[in-house]
TrEMBL record:
<keyword id="KW-0963">Cytoplasm</keyword>
<keyword id="KW-0479">Metal-binding</keyword>
<dbReference type="InterPro" id="IPR030048">
    <property type="entry name" value="SurE"/>
</dbReference>
<dbReference type="GO" id="GO:0005737">
    <property type="term" value="C:cytoplasm"/>
</dbReference>
<comment type="similarity">
    <text>Belongs to the SurE nucleotidase family.</text>
</comment>
<dbReference type="GO" id="GO:0000166">
    <property type="term" value="F:nucleotide binding"/>
</dbReference>
<feature type="binding site">
    <location>
        <position position="42"/>
    </location>
    <ligand>
        <name>a divalent metal cation</name>
    </ligand>
</feature>
<protein>
    <recommendedName>
        <fullName>5'-nucleotidase SurE</fullName>
        <ecNumber>3.1.3.5</ecNumber>
    </recommendedName>
</protein>
<feature type="binding site">
    <location>
        <position position="9"/>
    </location>
    <ligand>
        <name>a divalent metal cation</name>
    </ligand>
</feature>
<keyword id="KW-0378">Hydrolase</keyword>
<feature type="domain" description="Survival protein SurE-like phosphatase/nucleotidase">
    <location>
        <begin position="4"/>
        <end position="197"/>
    </location>
</feature>
<feature type="binding site">
    <location>
        <position position="99"/>
    </location>
    <ligand>
        <name>a divalent metal cation</name>
    </ligand>
</feature>
<dbReference type="GO" id="GO:0008253">
    <property type="term" value="F:5'-nucleotidase activity"/>
</dbReference>
<comment type="function">
    <text>Nucleotidase that shows phosphatase activity on nucleoside 5'-monophosphates.</text>
</comment>
<dbReference type="GO" id="GO:0046872">
    <property type="term" value="F:metal ion binding"/>
</dbReference>
<dbReference type="InterPro" id="IPR002828">
    <property type="entry name" value="SurE-like_Pase/nucleotidase"/>
</dbReference>
<dbReference type="Pfam" id="PF01975">
    <property type="entry name" value="SurE"/>
</dbReference>
Length: 273
C-alpha cells in the first residue's frame, strides 16, 4: 500500500486539488491523506510558521472521506503530516497540486506548490508537484482564472500508479506542468529562463508613508528547446526533475584556490577601501 499525502497552495477547497484527489482515491493500493492550507497560500515558497501554533480542522468531502485544513503554509502542511497528525499515517510520497496556473522556469523558487514537494525531499520522501496552465494559455502563474484539470489529474494518477517503474532519481522531485487543451506529448525538460518585467511604481502617499507596487507586467521567456517553458508553449506536458542541492559545484575548486583565510587577518584589511 502506497501512502500518499496530497497538499497544495491554493487551499483545500481548490478545484485543482479536489480533481486530483478524486483521481488518486480511485487508485487501488493507494492510501490517501489530504492536508492543505485553509486559504490561498500562493507564492509563499518555503515559508513556515515558527512564531505561532497552527490551527487544524477536519474537513469532509462529498464522497465521505475527510481531509485536514491548516492555517499555515504548504510546507507546514507537509510537516504536520510527517510528524504524525494522522494516526498511523506516514507518507511514502508527497503530491502537491494541481496548482491553478503554471510553475515554470525561475517561478518555481516562489511557488508554494513546488515548496511542499521539496519538503518531502528534506524528509527523505519523493515528491511530485503538478501545475495546470489556464485556458488562456498563459505561462505566468499570476494570470488566468479558468482551468480544466482532468488531463493533469489523469496523468499524475498514472504516474503515481506506476511509481515503482518511473526512474525518479533519489533525492529528487518531479515538477509537472500541463498545458491546456489537447496534449501533444510529454517531454522531460530542464528549467527555462524567465525575463521579469517588474518595476517600482509609486501609487499612494499618506503622512510619511509611501505605497509602492513592485511587480509589473507578465514575464516573458527565452523559448529555448528542451526547457519546460518551451514544452508547455508547444502543447506538451513538461516533466522536470528537481533536487534540493543548491551547491555551485563548478565554482568550488576556483574558490578553494583563493586563500580565504587571509581575510581573517585584520591588519591586511584597509577600512577606507
Amino acid at each position: 500500500m502506497l501512502r500518499v499525502l496530497l497538499t497544495n497552495d491554493d487551499g483545500i477547497e481548490a478545484e485543482g486539488l479536489q480533481t486530483l484527489r478524486r483521481a488518486l482515491v480511485a487508485l487501488d493500493d493507494v492510501e490517501l491523506a489530504v492536508v492543505a492550507p485553509d486559504e490561498n497560500q500562493s507564492a509563499t515558497a518555503r515559508s513556515i510558521s515558527i512564531k505561532r501554533p497552527l490551527w487544524v480542522q477536519e474537513v469532509g468531502f462529498e464522497d465521505g472521506t475527510v481531509g485536514y485544513a491548516c492555517d499555515g503554509t504548504p510546507v507546514d502542511c507537509v510537516r504536520l503530516a510527517a510528524l504524525g497528525l494522522i494516526e498511523g499515517f506516514e507518507p511514502d510520497l508527497i503530491v502537491s497540486g494541481i496548482n491553478h496556473g503554471a510553475n515554470l522556469g525561475d517561478d518555481i523558487t516562489y511557488s508554494g506548490t513546488v515548496a511542499a514537494a521539496l519538503e518531502g525531499i528534506m524528509l527523505g520522501v519523493p515528491g511530485i508537484a503538478v501545475s495546470q496552465q489556464s485556458t488562456r494559455r498563459e505561462l505566468d502563474f499570476r494570470l488566468g482564472h479558468e482551468f480544466a484539470f482532468e488531463n493533469a489529474a489523469a496523468f499524475v494518477a498514472r504516474v503515481v500508479d506506476r511509481l515503482e517503474d518511473v526512474p525518479l532519481p533519489v533525492g529528487s522531485l518531479l515538477n509537472i506542468n500541463v498545458p491546456t487543451g489537447d496534449i501533444g506529448g510529454v517531454e522531460v525538460t530542464r528549467l527555462g529562463k524567465r525575463i521579469y518585467q517588474d518595476r517600482l511604481d509609486l501609487i499612494d502617499e499618506d503622512t510619511g508613508r509611501k505605497r509602492y507596487r513592485v511587480y509589473g507586467d507578465s514575464p516573458v521567456h527565452d523559448d529555448d528547446p528542451g526547457t519546460d517553458l518551451a514544452a508547455v508553449s508547444a502543447g506538451r506536458i513538461a516533466v522536470t526533475p528537481l533536487h534540493f542541492d543548491l551547491t555551485a559545484e563548478a565554482g568550488m575548486e576556483a574558490l578553494r584556490e583563493f586563500d580565504l583565510a587571509q581575510l581573517l587577518e585584520a591588519d591586511d584589511v584597509d577600512p577606507t577601501s
